[in-house]
Amino acid sequence: MPTKTHVRTYLPATQEALELMGLEIAAARKARKWSETTLAERAGISRSSVQRIERGSPKAEVGMVFELASLLGIPLFGDDRRARLASSREKAPLLPQRIRTSKPKVSDEF
């Protein structure tokens, strides 16, 4: 009996962000005159992973994408990344540990 496969779909904004990051990584790599193999070796990943990232595949691990961007000097989250990180670290303890949703009231009056 064949199993059902669930095809994951992504929002257009997500697809555009993946494509943009992939194109920026490819452009920065080429500007440095690095081959895909060179970048892969520097990042400690496979060449096929670099190709997947540059194609904008949503299957690529976000950590690998950020690693390549950092290696190539592509700014992540703008110039104020460290200030935003410090601010987020200050706010994190003030946020609730978990979110509870209220259960809908059941009307048992017939």
Short summary:
The chain is built from 5 helices and no strands.
Keywords:
mainly alpha; 0% strand; 434 Repressor (Amino-terminal Domain)
- The helix tally amounts to 5
Q: Could you estimate the helical fraction of the residues in percent?
A: 40-55%
Q: How would a textbook summarize the main sheet?
A: none
Specify Rg, calculated over alpha carbons: 21 Å
What is the 3D shape? flat
Count of β-strands? 0
CATH top level label of the domain at 12-73: Mainly Alpha
Show unreliable segments. Answer: none
User: What pattern of helices and strands is seen along the backbone?
Assistant: HHHHH
Protein name: Transcriptional regulator with XRE-family HTH domain
Domain HTH cro/C1-type: 25-76
Region (Disordered): 87-110
Pfam families: HTH_3
Describe the protein in words.
By secondary structure, the chain is mostly helical. It has a domain at 12-73: 434 Repressor (Amino-terminal Domain). It contains five helices and no strands. It has helices at 12-31, 36-43, 47-54, 62-71, 81-91. Helix 2 packs across helix 3. The protein is flat, with a radius of gyration of 21 Å. This is Transcriptional regulator with XRE-family HTH domain.
Secondary-structure blueprint of this entry?
Elements: H1 12-31, H2 36-43, H3 47-54, H4 62-71, H5 81-91
